[in-house]
């Protein structure tokens, strides 16, 4: 093996490790923000028989944002982040394919000539495409979840719970994109040259 190939391999692994750490930190951080706050609010509204089903699920926004930034390279880091999430919080759910449905949503939009991977953030339509990809991914998640759980009588198969997933995912991507738009607007205002 030539030394240049070995350097490329180490550089690839270093890039993968950085992406995995970054995406995992985003995903776990967004879940840490979502779970205690939203779970407390829902528990106080729903009573003691409450089972966690976020009204605003920020990790969905992280999945969409990661796929938008890193494309197919985000799938494995998102799966690793999901595995770490299960290990830390113990919330197993039958939706470990979620990074794949997010990527599939982006690819469906790309095939429809609505290029969601267009990353020029000065183009305002990119935010709408990001939300559209998030909504499409939420619908795909629900369809796949229902197909996976056909005949299952557990809590993940209940219609109101499934609709809660869709609403939570959509609210999560709307809030996440809203934060991104706000940060971008502040950045533009802050670094805009003064007019004479």
What report would you give on this structure?
The chain is globular. It has about 200 residues and is an all-alpha fold. It has a single domain (about 5-190), classed as Arp2/3 complex 21 kDa subunit ARPC3. Helix content is about 70%, strand content about 0%. The longest helix is centred in the N-terminal third of the chain and has 44 residues, at about 5-45. The model has no long low-confidence stretch (mean pLDDT about 75). The protein has helices at about 5-45, 60-70, 75-90, 100-110, 125-150, 160-190.
Give the topology, please:
Elements: H1 3-46, H2 58-70, H3 75-89, H4 98-111, H5 125-148, H6 159-190
- Number of β-strand runs: 0
Q: In total, how many domains does the architecture comprise?
A: 1
Order of helices and strands: HHHHHH
Structural class: mainly alpha
Taken as a percent bin, the fraction of beta residues is: under 5%
- Number of helical regions: 6
Which regions are unreliable across 5 or more consecutive residues at pLDDT < 50?
A: none
Coarse shape: globular
Average pLDDT, all residues: 77
Q: What is the percent of helical residues? A: over 70%
**Global Rg:** 19 Å
CATH architecture: Orthogonal Bundle
Largest sheet: none
How many angstroms does the end-to-end distance come to? 60 Å
Brief sketch in words of this structure:
By secondary structure, the chain is mainly α.
Considering the chains and any ligands shown, give keywords for the structure.
Arp2/3 complex 21 kDa subunit ARPC3, 0% strand
